[in-house]
Design a protein that fits this description.
Elements lengths: L1 E3 L2 H13 L5 H18 L7 E5 L3 H15 L4 E5 L8 H10 L5 E3 L4 H6 L4 E5 L11 H12 L3 E5 L21 E5 L11 H5 L1 E5 L6 H5 L4 E3 L2 H7 L14 E5 L6 H13 L4 E7 L3 H7 L4 E5 L4 H10 L2 E4 L7 H13 L4 E4 H9 L12 E4 L2 H8 L3 H6 L1 H12 L2 E4 L5 E3 L6 E2 L12 H14 L4 H23 L6 H17 L1
Parallel strand pairs: 2-3, 2-5, 3-4, 5-6, 6-7, 7-8, 10-11, 10-13, 11-12, 13-14, 14-15, 15-16
Antiparallel strand pairs: 1-9, 16-17, 17-18
The structure holds ligand NPW, adenosine-5'-diphosphate and potassium ion.
The site of ligand NPW has 28 residues, from helix 2 and helix 3.
Length: 504
């Protein structure tokens, strides 16, 4: 597991290391700068003419130290203070002093004409780091625009200036970096979009800042690593039969929407479930029987409460909502399912759309065992927060939502975030744009339900499901390119994605 701290959490870890472990701030700065220099050299960037743009905070201090190191080695380097000299931190003021007699050029002010006339091959952005605390405007915005218009390679120290380390949002404007060296832990704003795309190739470098404060703070987000996911994989025993791997009831599909039922059940079988029963509208029987003969098909024309209870009693796990529609029968089925089931239950798509108008269905329900899988629009509906509002700080919005309803929630997006009360918010790092196709979400609901059926907890199933879904997308993108993925291929490849994981 890796921590993904926000700005405040990272600053707390910095201060703890400096104040409690007595590692001087300047020593950490020296290590940070050295790490940046080493990475820049590894990347084989053209170093003919280097410009380092430094703010007055400690991010600027890192920048001046980098300039000094390159100057010592004889490179042509210019360091520009883009901040106010009177506002320099003691460390940054010290670094400016250290720059004297190294051969580096020092400019106390940014001059646009001079900057644009120089044939810089590398611009190092050390304007703002985790201390960015408001919209970038005025002079700073102009400087960042100049940087983005330059033909030089752009490398950011810690985080592209203008990106919020806590939310990944652009605060006014931001440097579009080709490379970023982030100090110690990857900030959560570097993995959430748009911060992720502004950072370019991003590496983190351990400089000895301790993680204890991050561990202590339950609000520090995290991401899992390959070995963590491998440990979650359901075991396949020699002495087993289909009953060993769970009975999954999928209440999915409606008239003209058989695809959702097909995709979810295919994904569940492909990822290991022993037995899948689909409960769907009667019009889907023939098509589903021919598309997926491995599934048991039970159909309804009208709502029959006894039949629904019998099916839920049969199942170990329920998944409801994909392609269900929002008509009267669908509403009745959802209401009764949520009231009756004590089994783990994935609620997706139309299940969430119906619920958004009837949040009272959750009263008295076994919410602790529910996993919601909304995309942004569905989350807007169930949370009552506009998408723009959610995007301002999606982790905070998600955390508040799961606390209120006591559910596990998988907020799907280009970067999917997963939350549950009393757990750290997790950000999934697998997946790719090839997956932005209709039906991808139905597949995810099937995979998560499949892991529940095989005995994983709600939290484990959500984490592993989202990861494997993304890995399957990556495998397809590698084989077929970024355009041709079909949701059914995602379902088919999900099992392969699990095998690869086992080998890691
Ligand atoms: N020893 C350590 O602790 C280590 C720290 N390290 C490095 O330090 C970085 C954090 O340093 P930091 O905390 O000094 O903040 P930083 O990002 O430089 O910016 C603060 C300055 O920006 C200004 N400012 C903010 N927003 C603004 C805006 N919109 N528009 C204009 N100005 C704005 C703000 O001004 P003020 O609000 O005071 O007016 C202040 O002057 C971290 O990312 C890492 O690179 C590493 O070397 C490891 C060891
Ligand atoms: N650009 C992207 N990068 C990574 N994953 C993506 C991207 N676009 C979509 N996805 C994933 O694909 C799935 C789409 O789900 P959803 O919007 O519910 O699809 P549908 O309703 O058509 O089944 C989600 O799991 C989402 O995370
Ligand atoms: K920066």
């Amino acid at each position: 597991m890796r921590y993904l701290p926000d700005a405040k959490q990272m600053k707390t870890a910095d201060s703890f290391t400096i104040n409690e472990l007595k590692i001087p701030s300047l020593e950490l700065m020296e290590r940070a700068a050295r790490a940046c220099v080493n990475h820049i050299k590894d990347w084989k960037i053209n170093l003919n003419k280097i410009c380092v743009l430094c703010g007055s905070g400690n991010n600027g201090g890192d920048g001046f130290a980098i300039a000094r190191m390159f100057a010592w080695e004889g490179y042509d380097v210019t360091a520009v203070l883009v901040g106010n000299r009177d506002h320099c931190t003691p460390e940054t003021a010290h670094q400016i002093e250290q720059l004297k007699n190294t051969g580096a050029q020092f400019k106390e002010q940014f001059e646009q004409e001079a900057f644009e006339s120089e044939p810089y091959t590398l611009i190092i952005d050390a304007i703002f780091g985790v201390g960015l605390c408001r919209e970038v405007g005025g002079r700073y915005a102009q400087i960042i625009e100049c940087v983005n218009q330059s033909d030089a390679v752009r490398m950011s120290v810690d985080i592209p200036s203008g990106i919020c380390a806590t939310t990944g949002n652009v605060l006014g404007t931001a440097v579009r970096a080709d490379y970023t060296v982030t100090i110690q832990e990857t900030k959560v704003g570097l993995v959430l979009d748009p911060g992720r795309s502004y950072a370019g190739i991003c590496v983190s470098e351990d400089i000895g800042i301790v993680s204890l404060p991050l561990e202590r703070d339950e609000e520090t987000a995290c991401t899992l690593e390959g070995s963590d996911y491998a440990a979650l994989l359901p075991k396949r025993n020699a002495d087993s039969n289909k009953g060993t791997y769970g009975k999954l009831l999928m209440i999915t599909g409606s008239k003209g929407m058989s695809g959702a039922a097909y995709l979810g059940s295919l994904a569940a079988y492909r990822t290991g479930t022993g037995l899948v029963q689909i409960y769907t509208a009667k019009e889907n029987r023939v098509i589903l029987q021919s598309q997926i003969p491995e599934a048991i098909i039970t159909t309804y024309e009208k709502y029959d409460v006894n039949e629904l209870h019998r099916l839920i009693d049969w199942a170990d796990v329920v998944a409801i909502g994909s392609g269900l529609g929002t008509k009267k029968t669908a509403r009745k089925i959802l209401k009764e399912t949520l009231a009756y089931t004590k089994k783990p239950c994935v609620i997706d798509a139309d299940g969430l759309n119906i619920l958004s108008e009837h949040m009272d269905y959750l009263c008295g329900a076994d919410c602790e065992h529910f996993i919601f899988t909304p995309h942004m629009k569905e989350f807007e509906r169930i949370s009552g927060l506009k998408i723009a509002e959610v995007k301002k700080d999606r982790i905070a919005a998600l955390r508040t939502f799961v606390k209120e309803y006591d559910v596990t929630c998988v907020l799907k997006d280009s970067r999917t975030t997963i939350a549950k009360p009393r757990e750290r918010v997790a950000v999934n790092l697998s997946g790719c744009a090839a997956m932005a196709k209709a039906g991808s979400g139905d597949v995810l609901a099937g995979i998560i339900a499949s892991y529940l059926a095989q005995g994983l907890s709600e939290w484990e199933a959500a984490l592993l499901g989202v990861y494997i879904h993304g890995r399957a997308g990556e495998i397809i993108e590698k084989e077929q390119g970024a355009y041709s993925l079909l949701a059914r291929e995602l379902a088919q490849k999900a099992g392969t994605a699990m095998t690869i994981q086992e080998e890691n």
